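Summary for the lay section of the report: proteins are chains of building blocks that fold into shapes. Here we show the chain for Zinc-RING and/or ribbon and then a coded description of the shape we predicted for it.
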Amino acid sequence: MNEQYPDNISSPTSVISMCYSSETFSDDQIPSTLVAEELQLALNKEATETELNKAIVRCKELVLNSEQCSVERKWLVRHLIELRLRLQECKEALLDPQHPRNKSSGVSRRVVKGHHLNLQPLLRTSTTKYCDHCTGIIWNVVQAWYECEDCGYCCHHKCISSIIRECAHVVASEKGCYELNICPEEGLSRQRYLCAECKTSLSISNVGEARRCDYNGLYYCSACHWSSLAVIPARVVHNWDFTPYPVCQASLQQLKFSSRIGLGT
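The coded shape description reads as follows.
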């Protein structure tokens, strides 16, 4: 069995809301009217704490001098947020010798819970990603973050020490085959009303909080189950049903990894 699982997954429910409505302009390209300010805004370069503070001051000045609701102001506000995040990252690096921003740390690869986590380059342009641990958005142009080369697990540098989920590579290798029982549910009471992964308490009064994974039948909180959809092998085998069903993030990563290596049934 070799189902194809989409790369586009649902985002977590706790997503940062932006103050401005999305209008047609490039997030990663500086407006032509601001090109002369590129160096002062510390754009597309590594910067020291002093340089970032100067860039923040200059960015504030440009925001105040720009027209309200203009493309320039929207870009500047977004860049100001990124500068503040970069400054915070810089301050954290000063307090943590193992922080990947410290070139002397040599921390470009970590192995945690079976994940082979590789440090991703800063200022990298890519699609929006979310941390698989805290569900927060990864500002990949300013924040240090890691990605597992096996299962695609992504997380902030600050979240590495708190990782709970085993790598899908390890889980798939140990099991050796797909779950062939259709949604083998045992009930919330069997889980003591706790999330199957992070052990967060699941409220029985709020039916929207406990989310069932159709692949393994377990219940999860919204941080561990983003309502992503996947084809369930057991439903294909028994019912020839290729309809995608909601699965937790751990199951999604297991299914995607297993489909790549051609796991048997």
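Put simply, here is one thing we learned. Residues 13-28 have pLDDT under 50 and may be disordered.
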